[in-house]
Amino acid sequence: MQSYVQIENAGMTFNTKKGKFTALTDINLHIDQGEFVALIGHSGCGKSTLLNLVAGLLDATDGVLLLANREIRGPGPERGVVFQNHSLLPWLTAFENVHLAVEKVFGGKESRAQLKARTSKVLDLVGLSHAAHRLPGEISGGMKQRVGIARALAMEPKVLLMDEPFGALDALTRAHLQDELMKIVAATQSTVIMVTHDVDEAVLLSDRIVMMTNGPAATIGEILDIGLPRPRDRLQLANDPKYHALRSRVLEFLYSRQMRPKEAA
Amino acid sequence: MNAVTLNETLPSSLAVTETEKPAAAAEPPRAARPTPLFETEGGKRFLENLGNAAKATLPPALGLVLFAMLWALIANSGGGIPGPAETWTAAVELFSDPFYDNGPNDKGIGWNVLNSLARVGIGFGLAAAIGIPLGFLIGRFAFLNRMLSPIISILRPVSPLAWLPIGLLVMKQAEPASIWVIFISSIWPMVLNTAAGVQRIPQDYLNVARVLNLSEFKVFTRILFPAVLPHVLTGVRLAIGVAWLVIVAAEMLTGGVGIGFWVWDEWNNLNVAHIIIAIFIVGIVGLLLEQMLMLIAKRFSYE
To answer: Distance, in angstroms, between A198 CA and closest chain B CA?
Structure first.
């Protein structure tokens, strides 16, 4: 069977003021439909770059990326992106931010009432119906991030791309949103690629963890199959030896084999 | 204000004394005395508000009083400058009939101010109509930016009045020439601030536009315009400040009806009190224009 997302020999070289900088090289990754994949690695390892390649915000300088057998050329609404810092438009309410996406994707086919119903439904899905008509400046960081997720989900994307979506949140809010995300993904059967630097988050959420080597010229170091049964419960997993073994595998990769490069000044 | 506080605090003060009664009964019998007004909740709040109000108003008031004293001191030491009291009397007389009209060279102060404001409005409006779109284009297209930046760099620092002879030469009349001076001096802050605003739109917002694949129209109305608006308003605020500065000088040279020419006229009449009044009028109108735009800017600030 053909993979849903195919990344073949992808590489990315930036032209900087100091000359060429190779961020990624020889990336080969196949992702199945409905799979949840986490990209993990030290900062500067190019995991966000890889996500941006799939998003189409960057064009790979080498290799090819396919989504459902079609080459990825530029960004598009079939790949919903949840940005690291939520990137809501501060002059639009939560509802309007989501509606902007809904309108773009379904505006040609559906009536205004249907579009509004769609927007309300997805806000309800992330539990934000009560804050629909508030501006981003008036709601908390966790709520903003949920609006960002709602906006991406509203487009009913083939792939949901998340760039450290919970990185800026406190631990309690993060745990809460991780649980929400698991429910949403289970309900929508979404294919997800998520960049993270949180080992627990990666093990808890994903089907496979893609561990990246340090840059420059980073590539995939190891791919770990998680295989923990779903639905997963963070409390039960806390006492699950398999969970701890997986967690140790990732930690060992990150801190023993890929020691954080000493900070180049 | 006081009466309201009394009404609010009295019942609560009674309530406090009633609940405290059982405890007080154990102590030597004392007449239940209502808590002093300023020790009740409402009373304390009133005192606090009073204190905050005093903190807010005292320094500016003190500054104004010191200013008036310094002014009186200078006026008393001779030199023909009228003191605050004398100026106040003249101002009361002047403002008692601001809109009289005794022919083109003798109109009320109200007409003069309105005429100046109209000139500023036209010149500034034209500058905004051209400057803001130009700023958008310069910010959006690097080529245009590089093409126009040397010209702007040379023209921007030119003293506004240096443009007056050109205006007089081309338009042959004083009125459009002074509007031209307002136009040319107030266009630069709007061009430059708008352009800077467009260049500083966070990449995140543009990425959102790309991911959603928004149309150019939607990108402009939903992202570019609201993101740049605060910068545009900063430019507008600076521009209107410049325009109001320049109009006085321009009118002194061109004549006609206007606050600038009025100052010059009163100087020829040696009516120094009126000149001081005019200085205050110019200052206060400038302040009001600025505050008005600050209020508008506040409405459109989302950070």
So the answer is: 23
Closest by CA position to A51, among listed A34, A61, A69, A37 = A37
What are the pLDDT digits (tens) for A7-25? 999 999 998 888 888 889 9
A155 to chain B: closest CA residue? B212
- All residues at 6 or more sequence positions from B79 whose CB lies less than 8 Å from its CB, including other chains: none
Q: Other CB atoms closer than 10 Å to residue B248's CB: what's the count? A: 20
Angular region, B97: left φ>0, alpha ψ -120 to 50, beta rest: beta
Query: What are the structural domain ranges in chain B?
Result: 2-81, 109-299
The HSE-up count of residue B158 (CA atoms within 13 Å, CB side) is 19
The torsion angles phi and psi of A127, rounded to 5 degrees, stand at: 70, 35
**Pairwise CA distance, residues B258 & B182, whole Å:** 14
| One-letter amino acid for residue A168 of the chain | A
Residues 31-90 of A with CB under 8 A from B: 55-57, 74-77, 79-81, 83, 85, 87, 89-90
pTM over 0.90: no
CATH superfamily of the B109-299 domain: MetI-like (1.10.3720.10)
Between A and B, how many CB-CB pairs are < 8 A? 53
**Three-class secondary structure of residue B71 per DSSP:** helix
Is pLDDT above 90 for B13? no
Instruction: Output the six-digit token pair for A184.
Output: 């949403």
